[in-house]
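A protein record in our archive is deliberately plain, so that people and models can read it alike. The record that follows is passed on verbatim for readers who wish to inspect the format.
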Amino acid sequence: MRRRGKVLVGVAGAVVVLGGAGLVWGPGLYASYVNGRADAAPALASATPLADPAGLDGTWHARSGSFAGYRVDEVLNGNHATVTGRTSQVTADVTLGAGTVTAAKVTVDMASIRTDEPPRDVYFRSTVIRTDQFPTSTFTLTGPVEIPRSGTAVDLSGSMTIHGVTRQVTLHAQVAQAADGEAQVVGSVPLTFADYGVQAPSLGFVTVEKHGSVEFDLLLGKAG
């Protein structure tokens, strides 16, 4: 999670690795190629609100199918290309009481984030995030949040730590009932690289936008 999010500057590496390809193919073809390989934004599998929020009290954890990552744009001669990185190495501990989220912490393994280009991922780990020093990013809820009684929208305020820098953020999320008694929480938070001590790369012919977003899709199951 750092500036793009959890994660999001990983795209910077794409510039170094694929920027030359853009010059060979032409900016339009390059952008089309990259855009075609970007992951879709996280979305709820259903729009069914959580039933009886007061009956959900207890501790919930992330289960298989959860992921987090980043979304960022690079620009080649005026052509925009979107790059996404993803990891399933996500842990989450969420405590509910009386229909309210009283505590929550999400931790992302930054070294496991992957895109469609391994060289980009190496750049992300070694140069952008420096996962040898900052192996994880976290989001910690800083105040109670009432579970919506109708609809799915919910805002989660907390502290996000990326690249060793902690900032206060608000996650715009959606929560809904999922299969097998699980709950699904999806959303994103916009980030600015500089806020987390990351310099957006610029190679002249291709640049990375100074803003991006962290995205997440959590499948939560109740402990016990």
